[in-house]
TrEMBL record:
Keywords: RNA-binding. The keyword RNA-binding applies. PANTHER family: RNA-BINDING PROTEIN YHBY. This is RNA-binding protein. InterPro entries: RNA-binding_CRM, RNA-binding_domain, RNA-binding_YhbY, YhbY-like_sf. Residues 1-96 form the CRM domain. Pfam families: CRS1_YhbY. The keyword RNA-binding applies. PROSITE patterns: CRM.
Length: 97
């Protein structure tokens, strides 16, 4: 679990990032979860964009991704989901205590 201070820190880090995944009409599938999980291992922090034609609401999409990747949901803002997962091998982000 992240503290409020840590979430604020991660939001500021994520501000300049571009979404690298898009969830569209097909929703969240196993392959997408696998790719997001691999990207999280490499980057630790990333954004996922929920497109307008997505049939599920963004909270459901966020919950499905978090459950599948075991990541932490930092924020859902607009149609963008910010995720964080500490990397085992490529740790670059030092969270404030």
């Amino acid at each position: 679990m992240l503290t409020g201070k840590q979430k604020r820190f991660l939001r500021s880090k994520a501000h300049h990032l571009q979404p690298i995944f898009q969830v569209g009409k097909g929703g969240v599938n196993e392959n997408m979860v696998k790719q997001i999980s691999e990207a999280l291992e490499a980057r630790e922090l990333l954004k996922v964009s929920v497109l307008q034609n997505c049939e599920e609401n963004k909270e459901t999409v966020a919950a499905a991704i978090v459950k599948g990747t075991d990541a932490t949901l930092v924020q859902v803002i607009g149609n963008v989901i910010i995720l964080y997962k500490e990397s085992k091998e490529h740790k670059t982000i030092e969270l404030p205590v």
